[in-house]
Structure formats: C-alpha cells, structure tokens
Amino acid sequence: QVQLVESGGGLLQTGGSLRLSCAASGRTFSSLAMGWFRQAPGKEREFVAAISRAGASRHYADSVRDRFTISRDNAKNRMFLQMNNLKPEDTAVYYCAAAEGRSPYSIAWQQREFDHWGQGTQVTVSS
How confident is the model over 70-98, as pLDDT tens digits? Predict the structure, then answer.
C-alpha cells in the first residue's frame, strides 16, 4: 500500500510563496505518476499539476500555470509543488496523489486515474 504525506502548508499573504512536499512510501517511487489537487471550501476537488514518473512530462491547470512548478526527487521519494505569487483564490487543502501502471512519460491528471491519496495540507492566502 502506498502512503502519501503532504507537508509545507501554511498561512501567508497575497503574493507570497510556499513549497509543498509529498513524501511517499510503500512502493518504488519512480514507478508512480504523481499529481497535486486542491479543494477549496464549498467547492469540488480540482486538478492543479501532474508529473510523469521520471519527471520529464508535466501538466498544469490554467489557473496556476506560470506561478506553480511541480517537481520530484525519485532518490528521496518526494514530490514538490513550488507556489509563487499566491492569490486568495489559491486557498484550499492541497492533496498529493499517486497513479500506478503508467508508462514512464505518461501524465495522469484526472482524479479517477489516481490510486492513492494523501490526507492534505492547508494553504491559506490572505488578501
């Protein structure tokens, strides 16, 4: 069973930066395609960013493109989300997710494609 633990959330002001981390265990990390999702209060969970197994392919939601950067360190079993120029509308619980059985350069970005989920970390951006 894959375990995913997010960290790095917090409270900050508009325009600030934050780096989220997702630690994975229970499976060879390089075998997992990974993604970040978020859920704001009263809204459905939505896609944020995704990365392929070796990190060669990446995909972003339009709302975060050019502000967020997804990356991974397979040697350390970790995935990251660097978030810059944060806005109040980025306020949400951020979840990392893992998809099994993907080819090395394949991106998973729909929720139904992911097999494992973390518990989430809260990000709050004040205006």
Answer: 999 999 999 999 999 999 999 999 999 99
